[in-house]
Amino acid sequence: MQVRSLFLLLALILVAATAEAGKNKKEKAKKDGSKCEDWRWGPCVPNSKDCGLGYREGTCKDESKKLKCKIPCNWKKKFGADCKYKFESWGGCSAQTGLKTRSGILKKALYNAQCEETVHVTKPCSSKIKSKSKGQ
């Protein structure tokens, strides 16, 4: 009987300690010092050149913050790294222009970026001729 009571008491202490630890984690997450909810974020500005690690500045009323960000070095599109698009497959090669085209529909705009709903991109046609004789 005493063993059962002791076990029940330990279980209650463990539950209370776990609940307190969870409460502390929630409080720490809220302690970023800001109660503002309407943040306006600028574009990611690389530390050097036009890609790589950098920062973006945000403002809300009289507060300001800087967040770390990264622009991939292969991302040099005119519509920016904060606009995410769902692209269709590349179209056929135009004999007149020597270019392929495809369009993309806006999927997500990060950090309140001003993005176009639809974008069109082109690239040069491949000069290589692909053969399908791989399995022979």
Characterize the structure shown.
There is one protein chain. By secondary structure, the chain is α+β, with helices and mostly antiparallel strands. Among the domains are: 36-72, Pleiotrophin/Midkine, N-terminal domain (Heparin-binding Growth Factor, Midkine, Chain A, Single Sheet), CATH 2.20.60; 74-124, no CATH class. The chain is 21% helix and 33% strand. It is built from 1 helix and 7 strands; from the N terminus they run αβββββββ. It has one helix spanning 2-30; strands spanning 40-41, 45-46, 52-60, 63-71, 83-87, 99-109, 118-124. The strands form 2 sheets. Strands 1, 2, 3 and 4 form a 4-stranded antiparallel β-sheet that branches. It has a 3-stranded antiparallel β-sheet with strand order 5-6-7, with no helix packed on it. Residues 24-31 have low confidence and may be disordered.
